[in-house]
Design a protein that fits this description.
single chain; about 375 residues; alpha+beta; Rossmann fold; OB fold (Dihydrolipoamide Acetyltransferase, E2P); 2 domains; 5-stranded mixed β-sheet; 9 helices; 21 strands; elongated; binds adenosine-5'-triphosphate
């Protein structure tokens, strides 16, 4: 089975997901890629195109197969079947050091006894480049990552963020066409991670090569990617821009994994000209029919994003997309608050501006009417 899915617009071909928005052979292409370890299918018939100048994030929970994809692209793992093409040429069978790809690992793996320049120079020395050319290239790259003042320091004399930059300079100096990043912020504290996100994006734009970044962190993916590839069970669940993935999750897995979604289930009770009324577990929903055709009795699952839920004190739901719920708890998050509610046996979540914290905290234990616009009800596949 081909495993990719794409929300919103149909893919360019059946069986192919695109993480680029362009067509043609330029860039990286995974073609029906599978990796099996004994009885575990780590990567299951994945097809994906990554444009040469794009920042793509493979996102998913632990064990979903994202690192195995990265390792196959880097040449550290051999595919069980399928192909990996760069600019139309297969990489399969080419050893890692001979591929125009390079990997930054979570633990930067710097040489402790070498200076910044020595670490950066190492990859070039392995390529047999002349000393003069090597020195110039290494120095240019150390400059690019802002470490020229520290070029004679050893890794132990650098902060975590500076070590991260040396690790980047060391792999980028070899002029890769694709940079592979495996959980690159794993060891950095949060503030540094936030800064490195911006630096890495700037670096990618400046170099204009593809960065393929693996993470299980939704916020990191949303803040950095041109395209996010959401994976689960070795398969692609959705490919899209950060806005598409968060506003239009394709299925229940993506909606649940991205978080801050109310996932509601029900069956169609009535179909009007442009709306279907759904008898759902929390009350009645009205959803736009759009391009979908619904029939009475159809079972549906939908998502309503927590930040699309309005709340008002009250005890009566007057129309579809209004639900009476009891406020269970409020959570202060800085610029927003979360309001956790119970509607019968079901949980509901609203995300509101911080200014409503006092008002909402006073409503804990009391009934409220949660409501949303029909246009914010997103139909999900199971
Ligand atoms: P994490 O975020 O925890 O690194 P991941 O999404 O990157 O997870 P992979 O490391 O690609 O997941 O692993 C996918 C599946 O393949 C897992 O079930 C894992 O146990 C299995 N797997 C990975 N490498 C091997 C291996 N060398 N031998 C056997 N099984 C493996």
């Amino acid at each position: 089975m081909a495993t990719q899915e794409q929300v919103g617009e149909p893919g360019p071909e059946v069986g192919e997901a695109r993480a680029n928005g362009t067509s043609g052979p330029a860039g990286l292409e995974l073609r029906r890629l599978t990796k099996q370890f004994a009885d575990v299918v780590a990567v299951d018939d994945v097809s994906l195109n990554i444009d040469s100048g794009s920042y793509v994030v493979l996102l998913g929970p632990s064990g979903c197969g994202k690192t195995t994809i990265l390792r196959m692209v880097g040449g550290h793992e051999h595919p069980t079947s399928g192909d990996i093409l760069l600019d139309g040429e297969s990489l399969v069978g080419i050893p890692p050091a001979k591929r125009p790809t390079t990997t930054v690992f979570q633990h930067f793996a710097l040489f402790p006894h070498k200076t910044v320049l020595g670490n950066v120079d190492f990859g070039l020395r392995m390529q047999g480049m002349s000393k003069q050319e090597r020195e110039k290239r290494a120095m240019d790259m150390v400059d690019l990552v802002g470490l020229s003042e520290m070029r004679f320091r050893r890794p132990s004399e650098l902060s975590g963020g500076q070590q991260q930059r040396v690790a980047l300079a060391r792999v980028l100096v070899t002029n890769p066409k694709v940079l592979l990043l495996d959980e690159p912020f794993g060891d950095l504290d949060r503030l540094l991670q936030l800064r490195m996100r911006v630096e890495l994006r700037e670096l990618q734009r400046e170099l204009g090569i593809a960065f393929v970044h693996v993470t299980h962190n939704q916020e990191e993916a949303l803040s950095m990617a041109d395209r996010i590839v959401v994976m689960e069970g070795g398969q692609i669940q959705q490919v899209g821009s950060p806005a598409e993935i968060s506003q239009r999750p394709a299925n229940v897995f993506v909606a649940a994994f991205m978080g801050d979604n109310n996932i509601l289930r029900g069956s169609v009770a009535e179909v009007n000209r442009d709306q279907a009324v759904v008898d759902a577990n929390v009350g009645h929903l009205a959803i736009p029919t759009g391009e979908h055709s619904h029939s009475v009795g159809d079972k549906l699952t939908v998502a309503v994003r927590a930040n699309c839920v309005n709340l008002a004190a009250g005890e009566q739901a007057a129309r579809p997309n209004e639900v009476v719920a009891t406020v269970a708890a409020t959570e202060y998050l800085g610029d927003t608050i979360k309001v956790h509610m119970r509607a019968g046996e079901h949980n509901l979540l609203a995300k509101l501006p911080e200014q409503r914290y006092t008002e909402m905290s006073k409503l804990v234990g009391k009934p409220v009417v949660a409501s949303w616009d029909a246009m914010n009800v997103q139909l999900l596949r199971d």
